[in-house]
């Protein structure tokens, strides 16, 4: 059997991070985008984060603070009050900037006008005065610091370190470079390329052939990457106490001294080498624990923490204080390494190092029980954090502070926020400040302060640029904190040196994980600096800690199951995953919707109401229109609230039947339904508000109308050529005051509005060429980001004295200098042109879009010719069907170019400012647009193009419309998203948030004919669409997270869950929660062996579990608590034989546990059987049906019960090294019927009919059959090799059965049972056909049915869904032989002929080391991540690659869609 391994969700969380100035935006110091005319986004710095194989780049920016909800409501109230005080004719006049109307008696600048909107009224005491004061200070507006996504890459390697470095070219462009280390001993040097707007690889350095990596135990080694503070070299730790040193040139002197070969001067580094610490530095350096580079030295200097003599808690009487610290320098020229400092006798449980500043000197050692400072003079100052340090170490230490609570530093991370202030983040996320008290130049003591705040469990803590501190977490959100230093006065009675560290949490930014809204909600504005001064003779620096922003993450996936969730009146499948850890634990839900037997990963929505009255099968529009304000008889708009947009007031729907079609105008009735006010004969092509929202521009298939807000016709222009009717209008684009139409014969028309007359007229198109020119697509767009700027070509033949765009209408004069408007056209030969408005001048032209090249730049060609052909040109598969530029994003939407081809290929480009061209520009181009487009997303859809011979109204009604429709929505009051919706048979949402890339999410409908966002029901999160279910009003499900790559919803529970199952008979879920309790050991007489003898010494903690019963909406119904020393290993829903039902079978909940009795006694276990029963609900509660967990049986075992499952009505459980099959006798006891001696520790039990898989931690996998007459477990075959199996499953397809396993290194293996094969040793051995490295292990999996659309299957295929501890979600999909062969050849072409990020080898990454075979068993599982990159290639490149393997591009894309389509 062959299969495809694909990644559904990338890893979650942050394991490695670094801050640097990486992108050019960090060099631009301009005002915020909202107030600047520059087209660059200004960023403070970049944050690069990594987890497993995903690398993400973010910018940290200061954005304008959001409007407070109560202030926004007050502004709207004032705007409503002004409606009754609108000016009459002659009293108002348009101001020069076109911003609105001012009273001529008191003309003020726009800034004063905006400030006056926020002046408090006499009865405005309910508004917060600080908010009013902040908004009055518009010269210094409040800001918030936020993350903004830039780029991400899925690497073909596992990241083990990130560091920033500066090379010689950094002094020219002032940008840092990025060093990335990988698990297979590689270092990649990356830099940012402004040309491609992406990462490019400078070099790759590999050490996998070094002697230190040839040992068999290297898989257990974790490498560390460190860089010198002066960027003189980088070091990567290798096994057997070695370092790989990579020197970097920093000046021309380094080149002259270190480089002898002039040919090597083009590279920024000198040859690297491997430093054996024991052989080259000191023979005592063994068992390296950690190392860091120290600042302030002339040569690179390393502090190494190691343990020459290893010990553990049980040997402290023989070996204590076995850690040592050596500080030595690196002479990169002479290759000598003199030792500067030697410090021995450090505690054996020392964990990590952090360098101090050059002013403070030395290093800080984090031990399990103390924080230790060691300077270069070997002076040690240790501060104990609990009472254990004197018991495990003889090192002198400071006295334990009185009243100090017990701290545990295992798993903690630390970072300096100031020169003498250290923040230690404990494993539970608690932030503890430590202050270094200096006497002269020496550290005299350490002072620990009280806990400041709590974040997620840290994986990395790093001081960022400025006053920011980044705390990265693998189990929850990663946060960016601000540590502002404020000078505060102190009284004479206070002694700063005696008190704790001066650090506080800013009010309003309290960070406590018990209240998720405080830490992970909307960022609070940065406090304005205080201008008041208090006279004081003495001040001290106080660190104010506040939350800036966070990167969301759900953490590891402990278990997963499919459940049924109710969406409206229907049930939908929902993937429930147990995620997070500790107080961040809970459930993450991924809802799916079945479509034709498949499961699409869609954006969950819920239907609010059906709207059959409006129709809308051929289009629907929701329009905001209002009555105009007239000045001298000319309609104008009244001053609008800049922070509030009016709701829609009109809905327009159109249908093709009955012929010739009807359009209906409707408004909302008092009951909330739609009331039809006007009916118009004809099919509507498009409609939009016009003349600043005071009119409606209505485009029919044969005419263009201007309507008043009440629907009465003001003007109509019939689309005629003389007395002859033109072909029907098939598409239009409306952008006030311009109208673009595209007819069925590919001719176009342009119209422009005249606000003075309130009508439209035809616009002269002579600058665009012949009137008969043909176009296949086009649209307007408005540049809200201010990056589209046209410049006059100095070499143009026709001189243009004024570079500023001319304006011919009052509307253009109003918008000049603010939001420019542009026209984009696509000609049949694939040429895309951008024209300026209102004066039609060609500013941009490119032919690269026809093949969807990676970068689109201006070709500087004159207007292309696209004359009509005879016979008429027929549509081609690669024709552009839809083209659109629209803003997409959250807080700062950015323009994106969306291209949809007739063959179903969708490409999304990001518009970016381009550097001026170095080549001379032809004089035929009078205008230049300095913009480029970089492709960020590409996907292929399955599109059907039936031969449309019939032209009846019914055929028109059934024709699928594929359109790209922009929208703006506010799913919550504090969140606004701009996106695009794709209609048709592949309806999709195109969205982007601040912390994620552009994503295309299926809507979950079979087909969507029409779509619009609407606020007619006073909610800006509503959508009106016409789908296969008819016209419906819907909204997104609440609390949907769009930052994870797939829509999800998190259910926080405040504790972690290890197992979760779905019970189908009651549609309820049962989960096993995990907490910690104090543990104590007792002797045989029940006496406590040990108890704490000091206040800062406590009992050890032991894991304990509890069962919880949940309803579908995650309301806890019941539970069962186990003993304080008992925790759940396995949880399963099994079908057992029973006498209580007519069928003789019933669903039960089986639980396997471990009973921990301390290290002196062997563990025990127990098997539990629970039943979910329905009980009478409490009369006082709102619950209609109530369920309880009833314990039916408890069977204690002599060993841990590590796995349970059901087989043919019997319960299978493990107990130590045995497997038992038991019957559930009389629903009260378990009776054994069969057993089998197996391996050492059973990790997995899976049953299929009467077949059983047994996965073992040592003896790999066993294939067993169960028979009932007589009762027996028969071994069919097993793997003869020793492998630690973490999970095993059955996978079947096309009458073939395979066994899939995963080990603790992430190697996925596929076994076959074939007694006829000579390799099976007469059927005794399972044959390993394929080995595939999946980068991380998985311990939870679920098998689902995969039914292919249109295929008649005897039995469905099996698809395996796996949840990984790194948070990733993967799938294993069977593939037929023909498809596998094509894709395998394609995989080889992509490996060899495509450049991969960081220069990594995809094939080598997936190879599993196997000493039992001569060559890798890599043929059998396809790399889905590598194959999915095929759709990102340009079309010409796709055709070239597929031609080399003897197939076609369409065939390959169809194969990928078939394998990746179902969930």
In a few lines, what is going on in this structure?
The chain is mainly beta.
Structural class designation: mainly beta
Rg = 35 Å
Low-confidence stretches: 30-39, 82-139, 512-536, 593-600, 639-644, 797-817
Estimate the mean pLDDT confidence.
Answer: 84
What is the count of DSSP helices, taking H or I runs of 4+ residues?
Answer: 15
- Helix coverage percent: under 10%
In spatial order, strands of the major sheet run 96-97-98-1-99
Number of strands: 99
Q: What distinguishing features does this structure have?
A:
single chain; 1463 residues; mainly beta; five-stranded mixed beta sheet; 15 helices
Description of the molecule:
This protein is mainly β. A 5-stranded mixed sheet has the order 96-97-98-1-99. Strand 35 and strand 36 form a beta hairpin. The longest helix is centred in the C-terminal third of the chain and has 17 residues. The two termini are 20 Å apart. About 9% of the residues have low confidence.
Break the fold down into its secondary structure elements and pairings.
Elements: E1 2-9, E2 16-20, E3 45-51, E4 54-64, H1 69-82, E5 92-94, E6 101-103, H2 110-116, H3 129-136, E7 143-154, E8 159-165, H4 170-173, E9 177-182, E10 186-193, E11 198-206, E12 225-227, E13 233-238, E14 242-247, H5 252-258, E15 273-276, H6 277-281, E16 288-294, E17 301-306, E18 323-329, E19 339-346, E20 350-355, E21 363-367, E22 370-374, E23 380-384, H7 389-392, E24 413-418, E25 421-425, E26 430-439, E27 442-448, E28 453-454, E29 460-463, E30 468-472, E31 478-489, E32 503-505, H8 516-520, E33 539-551, E34 557-567, E35 570-579, E36 586-591, E37 593-595, E38 598-600, E39 605-610, E40 619-623, E41 629-631, E42 634-636, E43 650-655, E44 662-668, E45 674-681, E46 684-690, E47 695-700, E48 703-707, E49 713-718, E50 720-721, E51 724-725, E52 729-735, E53 738-743, E54 748-754, E55 759-762, E56 777-783, E57 790-792, H9 810-815, E58 820-826, E59 832-836, E60 842-846, E61 855-856, E62 880-888, E63 894-901, E64 905-913, E65 927-929, E66 931-940, H10 953-958, E67 964-972, E68 975-982, E69 988-991, E70 999-1002, ...
Parallel strand pairs: 1-99, 32-33
Antiparallel strand pairs: 1-98, 2-3, 3-4, 4-7, 5-6, 8-9, 9-10, 10-11, 12-13, 13-14, 14-15, 16-17, 17-18, 18-19, 20-21, 21-22, 22-23, 24-25, 25-26, 26-27, 26-28, 29-30, 30-31, 31-33, 34-35, 35-36, 36-75, 37-38, 39-73, 40-43, 41-42, 43-44, 44-45, 46-47, 47-48, 48-49, 50-51, 52-53, 53-54, 54-55, ...
